[in-house]
Design a protein that fits this description.
Length: 256
């Protein structure tokens, strides 16, 4: 069981919680005393393991895994319905689900571009829209934390990914402006380079230059990103709204 009560009485929803950074966010939320739901496009041993570990940290019944593709409006609506059915409320939503299809612009197919935008940006829009509807109906504010990337400023071979992450920043800042007065806070975590399935196939030369350009001279750990999300979700971040908090080890720009 958890020793922390930082997010006690809160319900957290994390998109893409089956592995990588999302898994670490689910576990950090459970460790902070929250009840936590997460989704992935398929359920199986990986999601079972996350539920079991979150239950170990937060207590039996504190975690829920739901199959949902955030690019599908129907799935997102059903996801929120399932969370509210199980936990009666939702207080903190983390847009973490993300994919990449790296290629130079002229080699990027429309299918790949659309797929990246559908998950990383349209998915976040669908999740944010329903989250804010729930927050307003509940009448007690809410938090949205979205996982963005250094690539939001532009990065070679990442036209679709960079466009999606830049869009996420605009979406977040708009929510911060529209609903701040209702106690709904929206922020982005701008992530550097973390070794996960998403970055597994990264070219060895680019990997070396990324690490060399990072003053800490190492990649980030999923738990280090989750710690920032946990902070932004907590009462300690009550005056942070519309911000892009960098967790990059000091990396200023993705090397070309
Ligand atoms: P992983 O590939 O390790 O994990 C991605 C997670 O998202 C999985 O749980 C996956 O589950 C889920 N997912 C993917 N697409 C969808 C979808 N359409 N609907 C629902 N769930 C989905 O990635 P990371 O942990 O590395 O990345 C997490 C976030 O962090 C992403 O937004 C990424 O862009 C961002 N980020 C990562 C960086 C890094 O260096 N790793 C750097 C900067 C940002 P499933 O496949 O089963 O659906």
């Amino acid at each position: 069981m958890t020793g922390s009560t930082e997010l006690r009485d809160k319900v957290v929803l994390v998109t893409g919680g089956s592995r990588g950074i999302g898994r670490a966010i689910v576990l950090a939320a459970a460790d902070a005393g929250a009840r936590v739901a997460f989704c992935a496009r398929s359920l199986g041993p990986a999601t079972d393991e996350v539920v079991a570990e979150a239950d170990r940290l937060g207590g039996p019944g504190s975690a829920l895994a739901v199959r949902a593709d955030v690019a599908s409006e129907t799935d997102v609506e059903a996801l929120f319905d399932a969370v509210i059915d199980r936990f009666d409320q939702v207080d903190i939503v983390v847009n973490n689900a993300g994919i990449n299809r790296d290629a130079l612009l002229v080699q990027t197919s429309t299918v790949d571009f659309d797929a990246v935008i559908a998950t990383n940006l349209t998915g976040a829009f669908l999740v944010c829209r329903r989250a804010v509807q729930e927050f307003l109906a509940q009448g007690d504010g809410g938090r949205i934390v979205s996982i963005s990337s250094m690539s939001q400023a532009g990065a070679t071979s990442q036209a679709a990914y960079a466009a999606s992450k830049g869009g996420l920043l605009g979406l977040t800042r708009t929510i911060a402006k529209e609903y701040g007065h209702k106690g709904v806070l929206a922020n982005v975590v701008t992530v550097g380079y973390v070794e996960t399935d998403l970055t597994r196939d990264i070219d060895a030369t680019l990997r070396r230059s990324l690490v060399a350009a990072t003053p800490l001279r190492r990649t980030g750990r999923p738990e280090e990103i989750a710690a920032v999300v946990r902070f932004l979700a907590s009462a300690r971040a009550d005056y942070i709204n519309g911000a892009a908090v960098r967790a990059t080890g000091g990396l200023e720009e993705v090397p070309t």
